[in-house]
Design goal:
The chain is of the alpha+beta class. The chain contains five helices and twelve strands. The strands form three sheets. Strands 1-2-3-6-7-8-9-12 form an eight-stranded antiparallel sheet, with helices on one face. It has a two-stranded antiparallel sheet with strand order 4-5. Strand 1 and strand 2 form a beta hairpin. The protein is globular and about 80 Å long. The chain starts with about 30 loop residues before the first strand and ends in an 11-residue tail after the last strand.
Length: about 325
């Protein structure tokens, strides 16, 4: 998996120079926080209940490094206090989208503690859906019972520096496993003394998609809509029409079409990256068993061997040109 290159890589503050016996060193990166804070929020609207469950990580970077250099803890906001903050803000404001809750936490820590220079929040949303039976206002969906539906995991990383007017918001999805049994090929690639793979004119195409995208603004953004739209673009360009499908000449082309459609349909997204590792399904060689499988039966492939390692990895990042980026600000 490739590491994401943010569009804005400026540091925002200067390195602190060390003195005395530490003069030959400098702390180039630092911070601390609380990982894996699990929180659920329930909204009860009469008989109809709604839930949100997040797993939150908080990271703070302080103006001073005296906690590292001198063992002076006077500026440290304890990680247990950071954990408590997650629950208190969830109780006070509820849980909407991961992005909105991430921005809320950033604002709180910067506003509450003047010596905090940067806040980074990582949030993963647990994919609960209503159980699809019962009666009530949601037609055939249950009023208060849910099922865990891990088709894909939603996450966001929100970072806010005191010196900058708006946060950096990178959202994403991972563990989206997809497969189609036809309409995929891989032919006409480099043919030299190292090649052993034959041209594949019709193959099973399966991958586990991971994607992240950076927002150019947080003003007026429906983050739930954007996340669902990205998911839809990926699935549409992978699967195509329900009856005819869509032909894929390579994983690279399918990946590019999905990224391109996201930038066309969601103007608030300035950059998107995606990775698609191959999940191979190779045909089993039944020709070695002529007494069991007769020749006519070999004409159609029906049995495959799943092989996930080793696997090819295909990735790309697609950015808007600077003159096309959304200019809105917080």
């Amino acid at each position: 998996m490739m590491s994401r290159k943010l569009l804005d890589e400026s540091n925002g503050y200067q390195q602190q120079l060390l003195e005395g016996e530490n003069a030959q060193f400098q702390i180039s990166n630092y911070g601390y926080g609380k990982d894996s804070v699990k929180v659920m929020h329930v909204v009860r609207n009469g008989q109809v209940h709604s839930i949100k469950e997040f797993e939150v990580g908080t990271k703070l970077k302080l103006r001073s490094q005296k906690d590292y250099l001198e063992g002076d803890n006077s500026d440290i906001v304890a990680t247990d206090s950071q954990k408590n903050t997650v629950y208190l803000l969830a109780r006070k404001h509820g849980l909407e989208s991961p992005e909105e809750f991430g921005m809320l936490l950033c604002h709180h820590f910067l506003d509450k503690y003047s010596h905090v220079e940067e806040v980074s929040i990582h949030i993963e949303e647990y994919p609960w859906s209503r159980i699809g039976f019962g009666t009530g206002p949601y037609k055939d969906l249950h009023n208060h019972a849910f099922v865990f539906t891990p088709t894909a995991l939603r996450y966001t990383d929100v970072t806010q520096k005191r010196t900058e007017p708006k946060p950096t918001i990178v959202s994403g999805l991972m563990n989206l496993r997809v497969l189609k049994t036809t309409q995929s090929a891989f032919v006409n690639f480099v043919d030299d003394e190292y090649r052993s793979l034959p041209d594949q004119h019709d193959r099973i195409f399966s991958t586990v998609v991971r994607s992240s995208w950076q927002y150019s603004t947080a003003t007026g953004v429906d983050f739930d809509y954007c996340w669902n739209k990205v998911m839809q673009c990926i699935l549409n360009n992978f699967a195509g029409d329900a009856e005819k499908g869509i032909f894929s000449p390579s994983v690279q082309h399918t990946l590019y079409l999905a990224e391109k459609q996201v930038l066309e349909l969601v103007p608030q997204i300035s950059s998107i990256d995606m990775s698609m590792p191959n999940k191979h399904y190779f045909t089993f060689d039944f020709s070695k068993f002529p007494k069991v499988i007769k020749d006519p039966q070999l004409k159609e492939e029906t049995v495959y061997v799943p092989v996930d390692k080793p696997a090819g990895i295909i990735y790309a990042q697609l950015d808007r040109k600077s003159d096309q980026a959304v200019k809105s600000k917080l």
